Amino acid sequence: MNNQPNEVGYVVSNRDFLVHLDGFPSIRINDMVQSDNGARGWVNSIGEETIEVLMLDDSKITPNQMFARLNARLAITVGDFLLGRSINPLGLPIDGKTPLSRQKGGKVMELDKGAPGIESREFITQQFFTGITLVDSLIPIGHGQRELVIGDAHSGKTSFLIDLIVNQKGSNTVCIYASIGKPAVSLRNFIDALRANGALDYTVVIATSSSEPAPLIFLTPKTAFTVAEHFQREGKDVLLILDDLGSHAKVYREISLLGEKAPGRESYPGDIFYQQSHLLERAGNFLPQFGGGSITAFPVIELNMTDFTTLIPTNLMSMTDGHLLFKSSLRSQGQSPAIDISLSVSRVGRQTQDRLSNIVSSKIRQLLESASDLETIARFSTELSLETQLTLRRRDIIFEFLKQDPLRAVSKQIQIIMLTLPFTTFFQNKTKNFAEKYQETIMNGFLKEPGLLKMTKMVDSLASDEELIKLLEGAGPILTKLCPV
Q: CA 269 to CA 195: how far, in whole Å?
């Protein structure tokens, strides 16, 4: 940065990281300034008499201290050299590797930009595969969708996010993980998990710890979207995870209260909805003349499951295209991922599924709803009809097949086969315990056994669940040998 003082200003007042300066006749919002002892800040607002600056470096600020205007805006240098790197919101490396300033071919992009207009958007038609059966089959996500990940503590959200990134290996998807004000040990564990599974090569980590200045934490999601937009404009599909926007909202509340903005509900400022919605609207699926590619966003927020009506979670639900609801109670019961199917929704994803996946998904949902109604009736009856017993058994088997170990991606064909098998004759008299015991054996069989592998390769050519069930009826003799009762 060139810090030649073509304009200067002087400190009128300061409160912690928020400084009011007098001077700078032609300064603009998001211009960078620097104190005489090297501490940097950016112009957040301009008043009639003074400007408000948010400091990015820890430094003692004194009255009448001089600040100089830098020949720079609030921006970051982006390029393919970011892949595999961990940086802070200003683009400084935090992984101990080569400084990014030495990289050639970089492009400077401003952080605070408006969302692209509707003329740049393309209809979302392509499914974003997570490799997780429950999500891909029942709560599908589309490329360019914004899907909120919401749940209480210890519900498996972090494990799910790691799976999301690891399962993109080989898909040419660029992954960006924004860690917003989280403890340093949590970030280190997350990065170690990605490195151990070979996922860092196609991932950019943008992180701030909980001990860093609030303005720096506030910039984290802006930097993440700026980096995502660089890769999207190169025609690439981008997975962007914001973990989490609850911390982002609290930091902005701190900044606003310090700046004496009028507090609203739960002491958040009136523009908190704007601050987060104008971020999330930068995600989407884009037309070729606007770079092509897509940004699929997974904002995350942790909440107390006893109260869904707090301000930030309801705001985020209203500005996204659906949500995945995680529950620690489901995780403690052995469900993985611990997603509540009945309370999770995807408003866009169903239109991206192929015909067979859509039919199977509808069939499974109808079965789960019927089983829920029949289970209520069963509590008041000692004898159940054979049809009711079959429906409840199928429900239990499907729940077993929806369970998935961490770091285990499942292909679309295997997902469809496993969710359709409970409707075949082979599974008519099988129980939940059988499904639990032989799930892995059956999945490996359809990947390796010649007779079953042939069926797996035929799945994409089928047009209805009846055709698929008819095909899988032929698997009975082979499965009998693989799975002795």
A: 39
Q: How many CB atoms lie within 10 A of CB 281?
A: 16
Q: pLDDT, tens digit, for every residue of 150-160?
A: 999 999 999 99
Q: How many residues does the chain have?
A: 485
Give the three-state DSSP class for 324.
Answer: strand
Residues 186 and 323 in one domain: yes
Query: Which tokens hold the place of 455?
Result: 């069926």
Residues of the chain whose pLDDT is less than 70?
Answer: 1-5, 101-103, 380-382
Structure tokens at 482: 């693989």
Tell which residue, 205, 188, 207, 271, has the closest CA to residue 239. Answer: 205
How many domains would you assign to the chain? 3
- Point out the domain boundary residue: 332, 352, 372: 352
Closest C-alpha among 415, 421, 400 to residue 475: 421
Q: Could you tell me if 94 and 41 lie in one domain?
A: no
Q: Shortest CA distance to 151 belongs to which of 430, 403, 296, 344? A: 344
| Strand-strand pairing, 294-302 and 148-151 | parallel
Do 226 and 344 belong to one domain?
yes
Q: What is the DSSP code string of 255-273?
A: HHHHTTPPB-GGG-BTTHH
- Alpha-carbon gap, residue 437 to 326, rounded angstroms: 25
Please check whether residues 323 and 372 belong to one and the same domain.
no
Token pair recorded at residue 258 = 């310090």
CATH number at residue 425: 1.20.150.20
**For 245-282, what is each residue's pLDDT tens digit?**
999 999 999 999 999 899 999 999 999 999 999 999 99
Domain endpoint, select from 52, 73, 94: 73
Q: What is the DSSP letter of 195?
A: H
Q: To the nearest 5 percent, what fractions of the chain are helix, strand and coil?
A: 45, 20, 35
Peptide bond into 337 cis (omega under 30): yes
Q: Residue 9: left if φ>0, alpha if ψ -120 to 50, beta else—which one?
A: beta
Domain that holds residue 276: 77-352
Domain membership flag for residue 405: yes
